[in-house]
Amino acid sequence: MLLVYNFHQKIKPPRNYNILKQLKLLYIEDDMDMQAIYSEQLKAFVSTLYLAKDGEEGYELYLTHKPHIILLDINMPKMDGLTLAKKIRATDKDVKIIITTSYTEQDKLLQAIELYLIKYIIKPIEPEILKSAIEKAIEEINEREGEGSRHLFILDKETIWNAKEERLLKNNQEIKLTKNERRLLVLLSKDKNKVYTFFEIFDYLSHYDFDKEYDANQIRALVKLVRKKIPKNAIINIYGEGYRLNPLND
Length: 250
Known about the structure:
Structural class: alpha/beta
Strand content: 15-25%
CATH architecture of the largest domain: 3-Layer(aba) Sandwich
Number of helices: 9
CATH superfamily of the largest domain: Response regulator
CATH topology of the largest domain: Rossmann fold
Number of strands: 12
Radius of gyration: 23 Å
CATH class of the largest domain: Alpha Beta
């Protein structure tokens, strides 16, 4: 018998949810009806959701995609949830694991405690309890990677500029940049509140090219090319001064 809760009020992501992270979540559940119900709720929290129906398939997806959060059932075919969690924990101390179960055996609870879980949730899953567990996982991820997140600039809901890695991503796919396109974004992201003058941009781009003559039109042309690969308003032209980056996470 399928237990259905009132999902007219969908789980909403927390107010401090860090969309910078582009979170990936792996959900392993052998009850396909249950998986279908909660998958819709989980999509509110993550950019990518992977689904598996047993422990072995879940482990393969984990190795391939390295999700940030794993939600798994303790009783699954081929490899049970505790065995899978132990196998993952042997080499990965960072991934956030949430275990669900229909049972409350004391021995399994004690084993689960040793796995540094975010939460051990008894089925049927209460939406607010699941929401709380996901919020806690996200909070811990943000705390661990807070320093790195300062290098991420959301240009729109699909496009992110990673200044640390010097990579432009759209829907998690890298957009190719020329050397000068990449260096322009690197410079502008050094201080998103600063307006960089045409000459400052030129000086940065031609730092090792001493014979190159200053030409503001070349800077305009470069900005125009970059704007074809990013949202147009992600770089603002301050009339008479220059350009500055305009990310959504301002």
